[in-house]
Amino acid sequence: MDKITDVIYAIAKEKDIPVETLFESIQAALVTAYRKNFGKNRQVRVDINRETGEIKVFSRYNVVEEVEDIELEISLEEAKELDPIYEIDDVVEKEETPKDFGRVSALAAKQVVVQRIREAERSSVYDEYKQREQELIYSQIQRINNGVIYFNLGKAEAMMPPKEQIPGERYRVGDRMRSFIIEVKDEKRLSLEAGKLPRDVKGKKGLEIILSRTHPGLVRRLFELEIPEILEGDVLIKSIAREAGSRTKIAVQASREGLDPVGACVGPKGNRVAHIVDELGGEKIDIIEYTDDLSKFIENSLSPAKVSKVRIRGERSAEVVVPDFQLSLAIGKEGQNARLAAKLTGIRIDILSESQDLEKRGYENA
Fold it and tell me: Is residue 168 within 8 Å of residue 218, measured between CB atoms?
């Protein structure tokens, strides 16, 4: 039968866990086991020989004139019998390894190794997916529980809360789809890194990978995936405004002369943007050309409505005039077009029809 050290070294190598971490964890577990069986107040040190695997338990006693607590103290007379050099307030260490401690040791070692393996595997998954935050992932729905969708990632499970799901989109177990990784967290790991004791992390949630279908980043990554010019840097995404499941506006700009950024995103016969629309379940997408000319950018942002005039009012406000028959189109259903245009440009936009503008200006000049 392999020595305990052989097993520890083998597991450390296979699971890429520092071997000393395993030894120290097992020793700490054995201290707890010893105190549980032989006195909870005892000051104990456990040593595992790194070569032979031999386990020894040492109890520590304070040297006193008169013993009041036999678990923690030893008389000066008894201490000097062990070694004449001991004096009052010294600490004496005595080996007190129980005869049947081998069975306790084996059980404690097994529990520690299993726990450390789980922690190492969880840490590995955390590191892998933490690096993929703000990226796309293609995965399959494993189960749906209380409105929360759980995806199978192979090594881990990800979740999509209701607020990250596209309104009206149907989700079924077995469906595969692209999602956006918005956050990867491990509360237990963060607590331990902050120096909290193990008992402080009990009850805390473990590894959580949060996915989204509503985040504007999903649209950005889909455009990068579908439009080679964006991936290569010839077309830049300047801003995105999205109301998931309904409509998105995306502002793009060419980084090289002669390239039509909107045309590149639309693609031949509209097939490039059509693939993105299909991925988003039919969500409408307005592709807007970005320009440093703020008036022109605001005009473009209100597409498909036609704009007659733009008046900039301060740094974050503008007044837009549109033909009378374009007013409802510019505002959009329940104000959506104007709302998305404001989000896209970062400018508060007040929209007037030409008739309203004439009436207003006539009143102002009266």
Answer: no
State mean pLDDT over 95-110: 76
Within 13 Å of residue 220, how many CA atoms lie on the same side as its CB?
15
Mean pLDDT of 136-161: 94
CA dist 354 and 321 (Å) reads: 6
**Is the preceding omega at residue 167 within 30 degrees of 0, hence cis?**
no
Does residue 159 contact residue 208 with C-beta atoms inside 8 Å? yes
Query: pLDDT grade, residue 20 (50/70/90)?
Result: confident
**Chain centroid offset of residue 71 CA:** 48
Please state, in angstroms and rounded to a whole number, the distance separating the CA atoms of residues 179 and 214: 9
Query: What is the percent of the chain with per-residue pLDDT over 70, rounded to a whole number?
Result: 93
What's the pLDDT tens digit per position in 238-269? 999 999 999 999 999 999 999 999 999 999 99
Residue ranges in the chain assigned as alpha helix (H): 4-15, 19-38, 76-82, 101-130, 187-193, 216-226, 228-231, 261-266, 271-279, 294-301, 327-331, 336-345, 354-365
Does pLDDT of 105 surpass 80? no
SS3 readout for 78-94? HHHHHCCCCCCCCEEEE
- All structural domains of the chain, each given as residue ranges with its CATH number in brackets, are 4-121 (3.30.1480.10), 132-214 (2.40.50.140), 215-290 (3.30.300.20), 294-366 (3.30.300.20)
Rounded to a whole number of angstroms, the CA Rg of the chain reads 34
State how far the Cα of 128 lies from the Cα of 122, in Å rounded to an integer.
Answer: 10
